[in-house]
Design a protein that fits this description.
There is one protein chain. By secondary structure, this protein is of the alpha+beta class. It is built from seven helices and nine strands, in the order βααβββββααβααβαβ. The protein has helices at 30-36, 50-61, 111-117, 122-126, 138-144, 147-169, 182-189; strands at residues 16-18, 63-65, 70-71, 82-88, 91-96, 101-107, 129-135, 173-174, 196-204. The strands form two sheets. Strands 1-6-5-4-7-9-8 form a seven-stranded antiparallel β-sheet, with helices on both faces. A hairpin with a 4-residue loop joins strand 2 and strand 3. The protein is globular. The N and C termini lie far apart (34 Å).
């Protein structure tokens, strides 16, 4: 969720871009993705296609049961505290699971800013896409109190692994990033104080 006082577009603004429907089957099975997944820190500049973006974001938080609204990653009590953002050379986007769509929040390339907030890691500046996971803890702690904090961290691990394995299945590569300044990244993407940035995943074609 976006802080209404931030410099990015309000979530009530237009700018929604529908993504292609994610494919239910691929050319690689789960065992193959597990064997091949590795952390890659150097990427080609080749832009990801909308189909690739759709598959990656669906893996993170897509709705896999439309009748009950259940998602691809398990969530304690189906409270779904996670929010997903996508950064590319074109701008910053917020993923809308119910529409499998992107809402444009900010135009322009913010990857250098993100890299500076992540201890200068070139991987973030170089990758054609960075998936950012944040969480609104109150969605889960409101039901489970202090224990809910643990559940949120467990959930982001589930969702992130889905992304890493989907990247392999698409012939792409990824790397988990946990070393960054939480406050600086939150300010760059414009989230409110109630939302905490947890995880960054640069994704692209391995160099």
């Amino acid at each position: 969720m976006i802080d209404e006082n931030s410099s990015v577009q309000s979530k009530s603004d237009s700018g929604i871009r529908l993504l292609p429907q994610p494919a239910p089957k691929g050319s690689m099975n789960l065992l193959e993705t597990l064997w091949q997944r590795r952390s890659v820190r150097s990427f080609l500049s080749k832009t990801l296609t909308d189909n690739e973006i759709s598959q990656l974001l669906f893996a993170a938080q897509g709705i896999s049961d439309t009748q009950r609204g259940l998602r691809t990653a398990p969530s304690a009590g189906a409270t779904y505290p996670l929010e997903i953002y996508l950064v590319t050379a074109d701008g910053l986007y917020h993923y809308l699971p119910d529409k499998n769509a992107l809402r444009l929040l900010k135009t322009g390339d913010i990857r250098s800013e993100l890299s500076a907030a992540a201890l200068g890691q070139n991987t973030i500046r170089e990758a054609p896409a960075i998936i950012i996971f944040s969480a609104i803890f109150e969605r889960t702690t409101g039901r489970y109190r202090d224990r809910g904090v643990r559940y949120v961290y467990i959930e982001v691990g589930h969702a992130a692994q889905n992304v890493h394995l989907m990247a392999v299945a698409l012939g792409l590569a990824s790397v988990p990033i946990g070393a960054f300044d939480d406050v600086k990244v939150a300010r760059i993407i414009g989230v409110s104080q109630s939302e905490k940035v947890l995880y960054l995943i640069p994704v692209g074609k391995a160099r």
